[in-house]
Fold this protein.
Amino acid sequence: MDILAATTNAKPQYGVILTNPVLPLETAPHTQLEIGFGNGEYTVQYAEAHPDVMFYGVEISQACVLKCARRAAGLKNLRILNADARYMLRELFADESLEHIIMQFPCPWSSNKQAHRRVTAKDFADGLAAVLKIGGEFEMLTDDEPYSLEVREVLGKHQALALTKYEVNPEREITTKYERKWLEEGKNIYRLVFAKTQAFSVGRRIAQEMHIKIRHEVTAQEIEALRNVEGKKNGGLAFWKFGRCFSDGESYLLETLTSDEEFGQKFYIHIANRDEGALIRLDQTADAFLTPAVRAALDDAAHRLYEGR
Ligand SMILES: C[S@@+](CC[C@H](N)C(=O)[O-])C[C@H]1O[C@@H](n2cnc3c(N)ncnc32)[C@H](O)[C@@H]1O
């Protein structure tokens, strides 16, 4: 969109949506993040009001990403990503790279079965603690009092986080759609702020590149035989399944589905015969991250194609 605008002088119709970015993401001295921005109203107003801040928005819903991108047309300091923040937070950002993270009216995931999805789940809390700068803040708003108390209790006990504010019905310059809805219904709004107090780090699960070479060429029939083959690893936390195979006569694209701890991706594995062997890698147009399940799928495809002989 930016290139088109530069050559035609047309006003851009969308803001910047990042697809298949190099990780960790680029940051500036003042970099902030909003998780689950919904229709993007707050996101765009906040980024407009803070041109010195590099502002990222991560949202799991594609429809919301598009809504926000339309509002953000022409805005240079906002970058929007379609991703599951629970899994991706620690992968997207390096340690100590963000000065502020805001999450407004997340779903409280009330049942015990859904506890792993909450902000209080250990993995997510560790991710927050890692990517914040020391002194940086995590701010959360909710209309659900029991949830606010759970977050206060659990994040407050994290070794690298300390509660600095717990407010009821705070005055806010910019409000969100859900906030106005809850206030109109006469509900209270709870605001919690935690500061990062000490260095903290977590391991990352995503690799940057992976190419596998096998020592003989492969045929379309051998790749097609992988259809519906599935596998799992890490006690079922990583799962993959192969689908259809497409070919342009020179190389092949193998449709693949993966899931890492419920983080789902769909992409193509690119297979090309070269130098009396075959090269297997993630297709470059695939908007997929090299998670453990994706790496296992590449490995599995390569092993099956190699050993199928
Ligand atoms: C109740 S809405 C609130 C939207 C907005 N913050 C507001 O206050 O109007 C919760 C939002 O979080 C998003 N969301 C839920 N789980 C998410 C996840 N794991 N990663 C990123 N966004 C998520 C949903 O798609 C939805 O847009």
